[in-house]
C-alpha cells in the first residue's frame, strides 16, 4: 500500500526529511534499539499496595484527589523529592461501580499547572483531563459522570502539554478499578492486596543524591532508566500463597517496553486487556506491554513446581519481581472458560477506513500525519455513537524506526487487524492503547460514547510532549 498518496482525513503530509537531523540526536533513538538493562530486583522490600481511596460519603459518590509534592523514602534513610496523589508518591486506587453516578473533586496543590487525565475512562471531552483542562496551582474542579463501561483496570495521570512526562516521572500516577455484577460473578481472584494485585511498572534514573533529576535524565526520544520501581517500591518482592493469583500489570513507564514472563518458563492466563475481559482466557508464556497498556493475568502458584527463586522477568532476563511462595494453600478461585461476550460484527469488519494516522519520526522531530500538535487545530471529526475504522501506520525513518504506542482518549476500541491479519487472541478485547511496530499497519474500530474534544497520541510521554499528538472533535 502506498501510504504517501493517501487522501483520507488527516493525511496532509509535510514530513521533514530525516537526513537533516544532527548526528548527535541519534543517541536517543539508539537507546531504544539497544535498551539499557534494568538492575535485578534483590527482593528485599515487599511491594507496596496502593491504598483504596475512601469515599467522602455514601449517598453521593464523591472522591477527592489532590496532586501534591512531597518526600519519599525510596532508598533507606534517603528522602527523595517526589509527586503524588493524596500522598507523596504515586496515588491510591479508586473503585467505581458500573451504573453509579460519581463525583470527583480534583485539587492542584503543586507549584505548577497540571491536569487529571482519566486514562481509559469513557467520559465527555471536558471531563477527560486532556491538555485543554489545565488546573493552575491552588485551583480545583469537581466533575460528575455516570459509569457506563464494563469492569476494567484503568489509571489516571497528568496531561499538561510539554510537562506530562516530567510529572509522571516524578510520581503522578494512580489506579481506577471499574467493577460490575458480571465481574463479581466470575469467581476470579478478587481479594485486593491478597490474591489480586495491581503492579505499576516504572523505570527511573536516580542521580548520585538519590533524586529523580528529570532534566538530567530526560531523553527526548523517551526517558529510559536502569532502576525499576513497582508501585513505587525499590527492589520489590511479592509474597503469595499456593493459589491462583491475579496480577494487574500496568506499564506506567515513560518509554520502556516490557516483555513479562516467569523465569521457570511456566505459562499463565491472560484474562483482560486495557478495557475489559477477553472472551476466553489465553494461555501465554510471555506478554509484551508498551507504555500505558494494561493486562490482567492469573498465575496458578499451586501448579508451579520450582518455587525457589521464582520471579517475573523481562525479555533480557532482568529480574523484575521475585515471588515468595508460602506453604499456605490460600483461597480456591477459578478462571471460567468464558469471561466475556465481545464480538467483531460483520458490519464493523466491512466498514471502510475513514481515518488514516501516520506516526513518524524521532526525538523532537516526531509528527502525526506530518504535523505537530496545535491546540487550535482539530485534526479529525467523528459523530457520537458512530463506529469508524482508523488505520494507524508507523512509517519507518532512516534508522528503521521504533515502536510507537498509540492511545486514543475517551474511547475503548476493537483491534480489527495487524497488517491485514487477524490480531492475536490476547488483543481481541477492549483496548485504548495499541503497540505499532515500524512499517506496521493496525486497523481499529473506534466509537465515542460522549461528545467533546479528545487527544490521540503516542504514549511515549516525551513524544507526546514533543507534539506527537492530534485532536478529534466528537459531535
UniProtKB/TrEMBL annotation:
Which UniProt keywords are present, listed alphabetically? Metal-binding, Oxidoreductase
Instruction: Write down the PROSITE patterns for this protein, in alphabetical order.
Output: MULTICOPPER_OXIDASE2
Annotated Plastocyanin-like domain ranges read 68-181, 213-303, 349-474
InterPro entries in alphabetical order = Cu-oxidase-like_N, Cu-oxidase_2nd, Cu-oxidase_C, Cu-oxidase_fam, Cu_oxidase_Cu_BS, Cupredoxin
Stretch list, region Disordered: 1-38
Q: Which SUPFAM superfamilies match?
A: Cupredoxins
* Matches recorded under Gene3D superfamilies: Cupredoxins - blue copper proteins
Q: Locate the compositionally biased regions of type Basic and acidic residues.
A: 1-32
Q: Which family does it belong to?
A: Belongs to the multicopper oxidase family.
Q: What is this protein called?
A: Multicopper oxidase domain-containing protein
Q: Which organism is it from?
A: Lysinibacillus xylanilyticus
Taxonomic classification: Bacteria, Bacillati, Bacillota, Bacilli, Bacillales
